[in-house]
Amino acid sequence: MGSDHHNIRLGQILVVCAPSGTGKSTLIEMLRREYPDFGFSVSYTTRAPRGQEQDGREYHFVTRDVFMEMRERGEFCEWAEVHGNFYGTATAPVEAMLDQGRDVLFDIDVQGAKQLRKTFYKGTFVFLLPPSRAELVRRLTRRGTDSGESIARRLTNATGEMRQADFFDYWVVNDDLDTAYEELRAVYLAGRCKPVLRPGMLDSILDTWGSDG
Prior knowledge:
The structure is a single chain. The chain is an alpha/beta fold. The chain has helices at 24-34, 64-72, 91-99, 110-119, 133-142, 148-162, 177-191, 201-207; strands spanning 13-17, 39-40, 44-45, 60-61, 76-82, 85-90, 104-107, 124-129, 170-173. The chain has a single domain (2-41, 102-212), classed as P-loop containing nucleotide triphosphate hydrolases (Rossmann fold), CATH 3.40.50.300. The protein is built from eight helices and nine strands. Strand 5 and strand 6 form a beta hairpin. The longest helix is centred in the C-terminal third of the chain and has 15 residues, at 148-162. It is globular. It is found in: Cytoplasm.
């Protein structure tokens, strides 16, 4: 009878951070493709949509005034200013997904990750690293969306972010994409097995011992 509780599991928070140009979006998309049941935290932002981005899909696009009102009401579990724009994550929908046993993936910056740790301390925090500065410059240049000034700013920001990498539970170097993905995937699956996310499992199994226990 206790076996009914074996599969009861709370959702896991998986936080993935990386300097711009490291390949984070590609790796996250690969993970979501393999695990389509992932709950994804759609952040609020004050920046304008880019390309084919749609409101409510990539981000909730709001005005600065609306964002500040939400922040003052304490609706964000994390928020940060990045490159002159504000980004934030609402707490309520995340908690609802976790209670339903859904894992939630966060694609945020280092500032946001540090705030998030205070609210969701049971989460798994991963930092993606480029193999070298030269390779990061090559990737930022190749995508052709940033000016020279923008690339220089992103490199400066990358240096500051990487110096905070000790905050994270795991490091994954994105040199070879397939290898990096296998490591990220392994971290995610290991995180799902944390005892704190499986309340009652041990007692449920021990109950099968009966009086012999």
